[in-house]
Amino acid sequence: MSPVFQLRGDGVTKTDVRFGSVIELHSLVVELLENFELSFPEGKTILRVPAIAMTCLVEGEREKGVQMPIRLKPLINC
Q1: Is 29 helix (H, G, I), strand (E, B) or coil?
Q2: Which helix (H) or strand (E) holds 37?
Q3: Is 0.90 surpassed by the pTM of this model?
Q4: Handedness of CA 13, 16, 19, 20 (dihedral sign)
Q5: How confident is the model over 3-49, as pLDDT tens digits?
Q6: CB-based contacts of 8: which residues, under 8 Å, 6+ apart?
Q7: What is the C-alpha to C-alpha distance for residues 25 and 18, in angstroms, rounded to an integer?
Q8: Distance CA 3, CA 8 (A)
Q9: CA proximity to 39, closest of 13, 69, 9
Q10: Strand 55-58 vs strand 7-8: parallel, antiparallel, or unpaired?
């Protein structure tokens, strides 16, 4: 059995391991959004390119492959 589908706990408290991973990922995203200002770098144009799923490329940098440059600026809470 793959570790992704393993269960933990016993009886009615048995939960899927994936549930814990989703909660951790959710809390990470919330912390990033609450404590940082996200913006695109100036002077770069982001292109949406169809592939198996929509991907992002920087205009003029196709040889570098898929990338999504984001500038993170910490928010200072006083």
Answers
A1: helix
A2: strand 36-39
A3: no
A4: positive
A5: 555 556 665 566 666 777 788 889 989 988 899 998 888 888 888 88
A6: 14, 15, 17
A7: 11
A8: 11
A9: 69
A10: unpaired
- The C-alpha atoms of residue 32 and residue 62 are separated, in whole angstroms, by 28
Q: What is the dihedral of CA 66, 71, 75, 76, to 10 degrees?
A: 140
First-residue to last-residue Cα distance in the chain: 50
- The residue written with tokens 């144009």 in the block is 45
Structure-token pair, residue 38: 């996200």
- Domain segments of the chain as ranges: 1-37, 40-78
Query: What are the beta bridge partners of residue 74?
Result: 36
